[in-house]
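Q&A log
Question type: sequence-to-structure
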Amino acid sequence: MPDYDEKQAYSIIELTNPRKNLPPQFDFERLIRFMSYGFLVSPVQYHWFSFLNRAFPITKQNATLPALQRVCFDQLIFAPMGLAAFFTFMTVTEGGGRRAVARKFQDVYLPALKANFILWPAVQILNFRIVPLQFQIVRSNMLPSMLRSS
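Response status: OK
Response body:
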């Protein structure tokens, strides 16, 4: 039988600390930054998705190849620029200047772009293949919102 006296007991402060199990305090400024970015970039995304829809039309007879072409264009053209715009906007709105933006690119841009190339092609193939054009922007913004909230 184990000897319970040898274990270190929790202090009364650890047991009664009301802040210990609470989630972190809500960051309203962060919410405003993300909403502002979404507000500014949504028209650009709309025109981009409309262009992809016109350039690579999906039909009942031909659906897979145009969807793959859309993914390739999206990942090779829009994703690098969109990610650069995102990091620049967020850094500047957090109060950073040129040095902070340059530092962000040195530290985070390439790993984030690599992660983007791993995750987003699968997500976008479903988006372009299944989701109607008018809902593609909403669907594209759902995953990042869920990832940021976790």
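Response note: The helical segments are 12-16, 28-55, 64-93, 98-130, 133-149.
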